[in-house]
Specification:
The chain has four helices and eight strands; from the N terminus they run αααββββαββββ. The protein is an alpha+beta fold and about 200 residues long.
Length: about 200
């Protein structure tokens, strides 16, 4: 009887270890899958903070920037202009050394941005310009504030020169945000420049 009891105890202990290990592996894999869905696998603390700020930046900033990855719109400096993968219509006017697209925010012709990708002599990406137009000046102020909050986290401290806010602490990128509103056309100019 004692032999049977020892054998039963040993089998129960093995079962508990096996079940515990299975539960740990299941939850570990599930957590990893959730992090992959959210794009948070292996993010640095700064990148995670930028993602969190981007998630809170509002629909318009998110629509314009596409994500918090890369310099902006998932793009990295030095990629070939021929490799740009935008699912937007080409803008009416095309630059000699790049490509320009138009992103409409709604069904009107009043709310849109032209996104222009410019390159160097080898057609490698060196500049990304956004000419953003929206209906009212208060909307411009709100959008400018949301962009400023996001860019402060992504690119660090800024300085102000006239009506321009400039981020130049990042070793690879300079960013310029400017209110270019006129009475008829409220808008923002947002420029990302590669620094050598």
């Amino acid at each position: 009887m004692r032999k049977y009891f020892n054998c039963l105890t040993h089998m129960i202990a093995k079962s508990i270890v096996l079940i515990s290990t299975s539960i740990i592996v299941f939850f570990s894999c599930n957590s990893s899958t959730e992090n992959e869905k959210n794009g948070t696998v292996g993010l640095s603390e700064i990148d995670q903070l930028a993602l969190d700020t981007w998630n809170k930046s509002g629909d318009l900033v998110q629509k314009i920037t596409l994500s918090s990855k890369g310099v902006i719109r998932n793009k990295e400096w030095g990629i070939s202009l021929d490799s740009l993968q935008e699912k937007l219509e080409l803008a009416e006017n095309q630059p000699a050394n790049g490509k320009s697209y138009t992103l409409y925010f709604d069904d009107s012709d009043l709310n849109f941005t032209d996104i222009t990708y410019l390159g160097d002599d080898q057609q490698k990406l060196t500049e990304i310009d956004f000419d953003i137009f929206i209906e009212t000046k208060p909307q411009v102020e709100e959008l400018k504030e949301k962009f400023t909050n996001y860019l402060l986290v992504k690119f660090g401290p800024s300085k102000t020169e006239g009506n321009k806010i400039i981020w130049e602490k990042d070793k690879n990128t300079e960013v310029i945000l400017q209110d270019v509103s006129t009475l008829k056309d409220p808008g923002i100019k947002l420029v990302f420049l590669r620094k050598n």
